[in-house]
């Protein structure tokens, strides 16, 4: 069993409009845009990162906004819901805030004794806010949401699968353990993690297969401290039969990827070097940052990429 994984690092999804996506996360949810860069494989598309003040691993939601992308179809083989932790007794505030902003599909529910507020993102993305007592992580305090009501970071994600057994076995190998069951939901938790330590598996054997598009989660990333530890994890995953990519430099972290038995794409990402490697902490997310291999494209990209009004 692995002991190096510390919880979630980031969740990456796809969107249809960069400006709408940016406004939703910064103005409605009150998160900070900590990086404005481009997709390594499609540099004419932004890669936008939102999180806490410095983009702490376990707080970062990232997006590829592809213009004219088709809308994703919900189903099995995907991350169906991304949950953020908020302070206790704040869901009424958040319900009023989301409703005033015209957010869709707002619903109060309770899972495993936790109060959560479900809602949809601009592209139908599945989100929830979960009241968590005593979360020591600090929300972004300089946005439109007061710090005493702000998002601390992720609580976790829900994966919707036709058969959860093989994925549960993989997560157990990754250091998670099953702590509860509720109907079709299996709750797994990582002890002594970074706060973003819950994975729920929803088993729906007869549901349709998901089709990726706007509003779909592309991959979910798990955090390790550094490249040395990442190499240990990669070696162990390969020995366990996972088809793991070589290590890839993503500028702000180093990444490896592998597909899970249930079809969800997992990443293992390092906590180093962080989002301040090329910007001062006070100015994160302001300038367009380009990977070295795309630096020569700056004049064309600055003209072609849509303007994001802050």
Count of DSSP E strands? 16
If you compute it from the alpha carbons, what radius of gyration comes out, rounded to the nearest whole angstrom?
18 Å
Q: Stretches where pLDDT falls below 50 for ≥5 residues?
A: none
Examine the coordinates and then state which fold CATH places here, giving the name of the CATH topology. Answer: 2,3-Dihydroxybiphenyl 1,2-Dioxygenase, domain 1
Overall number of domains:
1
Strand content: 25-35%
Protein name: VOC family protein
What does this molecule look like?
- This protein has 310 residues and is an alpha+beta fold.
- The chain has a single domain (8-304), classed as 2,3-Dihydroxybiphenyl 1,2-Dioxygenase, domain 1 (Roll).
- It has helices spanning 18-28, 91-100, 165-173, 227-239, 298-304; strands spanning 8-15, 32-38, 46-51, 60-65, 78-86, 107-111, 114-120, 126-131, 153-161, 176-182, 185-190, 198-203, 217-224, 248-249, 253-259, 265-273.
- The strands form two sheets. The chain has an eight-stranded mixed β-sheet. Strands 6-7-8-5-9-12-11-10 form an eight-stranded mixed β-sheet, with helices on one face.
- A hairpin with a 2-residue loop joins β10 and β11.
- The radius of gyration is 18 Å and the shape is globular.
- The N and C termini lie far apart (45 Å).
- The mean pLDDT is 97.
- Residues 7-132, 153-271 form the VOC domain.
- This is VOC family protein.
Summarize the structure.
The protein has 310 residues and is α+β, with helices and mostly antiparallel strands.
């Amino acid at each position: 069993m692995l002991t190096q994984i510390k919880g979630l690092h980031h969740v990456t999804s796809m969107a249809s409009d960069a400006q709408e996506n940016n406004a939703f996360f910064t103005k409605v949810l009150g998160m900070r845009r900590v990086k404005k860069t481009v997709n390594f494989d499609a540099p004419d598309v932004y890669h936008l990162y939102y999180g806490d003040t410095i983009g702490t691993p376990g707080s970062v939601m990232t997006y590829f906004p592809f213009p004219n992308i088709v809308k994703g179809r919900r189903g099995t083989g995907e991350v169906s819901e991304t949950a953020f932790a908020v302070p206790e007794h704040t869901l009424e505030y958040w319900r009023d805030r989301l409703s005033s902003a015209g957010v869709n599909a707002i619903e109060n529910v309770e899972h495993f004794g936790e109060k959560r507020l479900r809602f949809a993102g601009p592209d139908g993305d599945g989100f929830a806010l979960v009241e968590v007592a005593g979360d020591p992580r600090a929300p972004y305090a300089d946005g439109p949401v007061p710090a005493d009501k702000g998002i601390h970071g992720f609580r976790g994600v829900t994966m919707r699968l036709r058969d959860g057994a093989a994925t549960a076995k993989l997560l157990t190998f990754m250091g998670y353990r099953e702590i509860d069951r509720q109907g079709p939901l299996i709750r797994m938790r990582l002890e002594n993690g970074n706060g973003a330590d819950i994975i729920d598996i929803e088993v729906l054997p007869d549901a349709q297969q998901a089709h990726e598009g706007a509003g779909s989660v592309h991959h979910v990333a798990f955090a390790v401290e550094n490249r040395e530890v990442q190499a240990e994890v990669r070696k162990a995953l390969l020995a366990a039969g996972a088809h793991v990519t070589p290590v890839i430099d993503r500028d702000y972290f180093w990444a490896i990827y592998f597909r899970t038995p249930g079809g969800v794409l997992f990443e293992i990402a390092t906590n180093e070097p962080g989002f301040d490697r090329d910007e001062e902490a006070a100015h994160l997310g302001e300038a367009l940052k380009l990977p070295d291999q795309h630096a020569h494209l700056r004049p064309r990209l600055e003209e072609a990429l849509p303007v994001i009004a802050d």
